[in-house]
């Protein structure tokens, strides 16, 4: 496809889109995206990563106009976007656009909820902006994936900044030219390295994308200009950060083909490619019962991306454990656990889990789909039990229901803000589209002293 005017055409679409042009099923998926993000932001709010981030930046924050979800602190809009982006991703429990492995809501929802607190934004307008942001970041991600990701870029950060800019720009009423500039300002801040997986910096990426994207929109609102071809120019985003550029993925079918309707939600708090293994090992745990203690070998046959992303053989911290298919298999077999409690420092250092982890082997097989796994368990008496998971729970083929998303929300939120506040916040999240002012949702997400 001709690369002329890609940035401008995407910006024009984002500015001109009306709420009534978004199909009902896409809007419903947008609400699911928001509810899932909100629960993850509360659930991660007390993680030490968030504590350290707040300790570092508190002295630099401006007027306290935006809520840090799940905590008592209020910050200026840009710093609140950063912290909420970190907390929503730190447990690796958030949403996933499976075609690109982008976690769409972290950069987008974190930016616009912080901004919306001082603007009296209706739930309908907020939802429209959220969908615009998710659509923009996923389409840009499609354009450069998989080469961009394979080169080592963390696509949630690099594409997410465009989504945050688009959504914030939609909320604050950018003109077409200003949205073009916002995309350029976002492009020049696009960053995030996969080298950081397993460290606190991984969750910093969506937080920074939220902060930088919101800043891009506000700079553009003040007519701070940028290149008009930031995405497609020879020295623009797509050509500098990738050798693959499919611009039809950005502008093809705008308004008829919805990437925002393809979002998925994690049942397990770790890298998405581990989910088939956890799913299968939990099924085996149910079949084996106490006989799990008789396991002498666990063999996994997976897609090559699984070992590339989650091949940490001996994780030392909970964050590293999220990128160890070996740890995940052992924990699922021993505890039937894939929730945040499976990926704590204590869990990765548990002697029983470590002992079983050492019995897990994994081989790559290009014939195995990314959301599938073959598992074989051998017991002391020589019995061998095999299991094939063709599609993990949480995939497009086996999506989480609204009930499951709600249960996940409650289980994360009650330990942080208490049962009454958690259930109230969940109800407000599901009622997003009818909210008069989404600031009320943000404030309902505050922790009580």
From TrEMBL:
Where on the tree of life does the source sit, at the highest rank?
A: Bacteria
Q: Which Pfam families does this chain map to?
A: MmgE_PrpD_C, MmgE_PrpD_N
Q: In what residue span(s) does the MmgE/PrpD C-terminal domain sit?
A: 268-425
Gene3D superfamilies to which the protein is assigned, alphabetical: 2-methylcitrate dehydratase PrpD
Coiled-coil regions, chain positions = none
The MmgE/PrpD N-terminal domain is annotated at 9-248
Task: Give the family per the record.
Answer: Belongs to the PrpD family.
Protein name in UniProt? 2-methylcitrate dehydratase
Q: Which organism is it from?
A: Mesorhizobium escarrei
| Phylogenetic lineage | Bacteria, Pseudomonadati, Pseudomonadota, Alphaproteobacteria, Hyphomicrobiales
């Amino acid at each position: 496809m001709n690369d002329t005017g890609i940035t401008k055409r995407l910006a024009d679409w984002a500015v001109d889109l009306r709420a009534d042009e978004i199909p009902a099923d896409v809007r419903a998926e947008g609400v699911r995206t928001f509810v899932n993000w909100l629960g993850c932001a509360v659930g991660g709010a007390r993680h030490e990563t968030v504590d350290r981030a707040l300790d570092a930046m508190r002295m630099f924050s401006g007027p306290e106009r935006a809520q840090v979800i799940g905590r008592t602190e209020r910050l200026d809009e840009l710093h609140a976007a950063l912290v909420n982006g970190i907390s929503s991703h730190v447990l690796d429990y958030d949403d996933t656009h499976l075609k690109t492995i982008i976690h769409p809501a972290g950069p987008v929802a974190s930016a616009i909820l912080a901004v919306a607190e001082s603007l009296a934004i209706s739930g309908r307008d907020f939802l429209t902006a959220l969908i615009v942001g998710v659509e923009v970041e996923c389409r840009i991600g499609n354009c450069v994936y998989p080469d961009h990701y394979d080169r080592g870029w963390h696509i949630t950060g690099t594409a997410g900044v465009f989504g945050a800019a688009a959504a914030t720009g939609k909320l604050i009423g950018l003109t077409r030219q200003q949205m073009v500039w916002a995309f350029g300002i976002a492009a020049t801040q696009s960053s995030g390295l996969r080298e950081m997986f397993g460290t606190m910096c991984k969750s910093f990426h969506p937080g920074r994308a939220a902060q930088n994207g919101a800043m891009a929109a506000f700079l553009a609102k003040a007519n701070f200009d940028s290149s008009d071809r930031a995405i497609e120019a020879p020295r623009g985003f797509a050509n500098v950060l990738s050798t693959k550029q499919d611009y039809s993925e950005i502008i093809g079918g705008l308004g008829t083909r919805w990437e925002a309707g393809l979002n998925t939600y994690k049942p397990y708090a770790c890298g998405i490619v581990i989910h088939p293994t956890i799913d299968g090992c939990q099924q085996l745990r149910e079949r084996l019962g106490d006989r799990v203690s008789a396991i002498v070998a666990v063999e996994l046959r997976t897609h090559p991306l699984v070992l590339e992303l989650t091949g940490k053989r001996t994780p030392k911290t909970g964050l590293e454990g999220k990128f160890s298919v070996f740890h995940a298999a052992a924990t699922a077999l021993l505890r039937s656990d894939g929730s945040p409690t499976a990926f704590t420092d204590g869990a990765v250092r548990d002697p029983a889990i470590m002992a079983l982890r050492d019995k897990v082997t994994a081989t790559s097989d290009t014939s195995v789909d990314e959301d599938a796994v073959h598992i074989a368990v051998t017991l002391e008496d020589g019995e061998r039990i095999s299991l094939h998971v063709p599609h993990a729970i949480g995939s497009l083929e086996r999506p989480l229901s609204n009930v499951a998303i709600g249960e996940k929300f409650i289980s994360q939120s009650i330990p942080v803000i208490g049962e009454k506040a958690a259930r109230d916040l969940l109800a407000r999240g599901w009622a997003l589209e009818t909210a008069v002012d989404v600031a009320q949702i943000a404030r309902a997400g505050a922790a009580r002293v």
